[in-house]
């Protein structure tokens, strides 16, 4: 699994792009790719947990969603996570 850590600024473009992004995450959740996702309580960022076979698959998921290149959104870290409970 993979943990995607995002950082946010208050850019209005981010808020405008968020509904389509959440729809995409919901569809990926239905496919079992997104295991968990959500903003931090203070809305300074978010965490997404993906079930993907490798870094290339993660990069493809990120590239397919314009939200990740929207002003106000930055991908801070992509971490390989070896969960033992899921």
The value of Rg in angstroms is 12 Å
> What overall form do the CA principal axes indicate?
globular
Main sheet: strand order:
2-3-1-4
Mean pLDDT: 96
CATH architecture: 2-Layer Sandwich
**In percent terms, what proportion of residues is strand?**
25-35%
Number of domain modules? 1
Q: What is the fourth-level CATH superfamily? A: Dimeric alpha+beta barrel
The helix-strand sequence is: EHEEHE
Structural class of the secondary structure composition? alpha+beta
The CATH first-level class comes to Alpha Beta
Q: Can you count the helices? A: 2
Which residues sit in consecutive blocks of at least 5 with pLDDT less than 50?
A: none
Described by strand count, sense and barrel closure, the largest sheet is:
4 strands, antiparallel
The overall strand count is 4
Fold and architecture overview:
- With 86 residues, the chain is of the alpha+beta class.
- Helices cover 33% and strands 31% of the residues.
- A hairpin with a 5-residue loop joins β2 and β3 (45-50).
- It is globular, with a radius of gyration of 12 Å.
- The mean pLDDT is 96.
